[in-house]
Amino acid sequence: MPEPVVFDLDGTLIDSLADIHAASNRVLAAEGFAALTAAEVRGFIGKGVPHLIARLLGAVGEDPQGPRHARMLAAFTAGYADAVGLTRAYPGVEAALETLAAAGHPLGVCTNKPEGPARAVLAHLDLLRHFGSVVGGDRLAARKPDLAVLAACVAELGGGRPVYVGDSEVDAETARRAGAPFLLYTEGYRSAPVASLPAVAAFSDWSDLPTLVARAAGLHP
């Protein structure tokens, strides 16, 4: 059976920065703070919503774990499932998923985004149907890069050695801990240079992914 292919979500399958930026500024405005730029918020994405809120607070000079954190986290979470209107799948994502599925690869999503909002945005973009497992950042006590999160996704797909596709340092470390080949999408939200991440291959065009997966999985040279 072909190996499972597991994807990160934000910055990998979807460009959700505009919605996350808008939602972030809404909770900041409710607390009386000025808006942050999209570039600032971009650097806070990838480690889950509690981390995002902590970084927002730090950016406006507040204690990242102070008394505002719980209130802002609750407000952000309450509106997050509906924060889909500005989000788009990256060009070529759906065709690549269809090609991988046709080759027999079980497909999953392993993300630090809460699972409800992850499923909501995938459904909104008509991508949810491609995935046999979606494991969000609130499913377990741990979040990526903890190995348990990816392991839960792979188990739901029937097991096997996954190929992991992501866009960030967190994704690279997740794959490293799992001993999984890592494919880096270069157009996402990483901060580090491409060459510094331990990827077996990097790509910017989703039409290249099926061939890269086949090579990473050892299906052909």
Can you give me a brief rundown of this structure?
The chain has 221 residues and is an alpha/beta fold. Helix 1 packs across helix 4 and helix 3 packs across helix 4. Helix 8 links the parallel strand 6 and strand 7.
What helical percentage do the residues reach? 40-55%
Give the topology string: H per helix, E per strand: EEHHHHEHEHEHEHEEH
Largest beta sheet, briefly?
A: 6 strands, parallel
Radius of gyration: 17 Å
Put simply, the count of helices is 9
What distance lies between the first and last C-alpha atoms, to the nearest angstrom? Answer: 18 Å
Nearest-integer average pLDDT? 95
Structural class: alpha/beta
Percent of sequence in beta strands: 5-15%
Shape: globular
**Tally of DSSP β-strands:** 8
Strand order of the largest sheet: 5-4-1-6-7-8
Uncertain segments are none
Task: Explain this structure.
It is built from 9 helices and 8 strands. With 221 residues, it is α/β, with parallel strands linked by helices. α1 crosses α4. The radius of gyration is 17 Å and the shape is globular.
Describe the protein's topology.
Layout: E1 5-7, E2 14-15, H1 17-30, H2 38-42, H3 49-59, H4 68-80, E3 88-89, H5 93-102, E4 107-110, H6 115-124, E5 133-135, H7 147-156, E6 163-166, H8 169-178, E7 182-185, E8 201-203, H9 209-216
Parallel strand pairs: 1-4, 1-6, 4-5, 6-7, 7-8
Antiparallel strand pairs: 2-3
Helix pairs in contact: 1-4, 3-4
Descriptive terms for the model:
221 residues, alpha/beta, six-stranded parallel β-sheet, two-stranded antiparallel ribbon, 8 strands, 41% helix
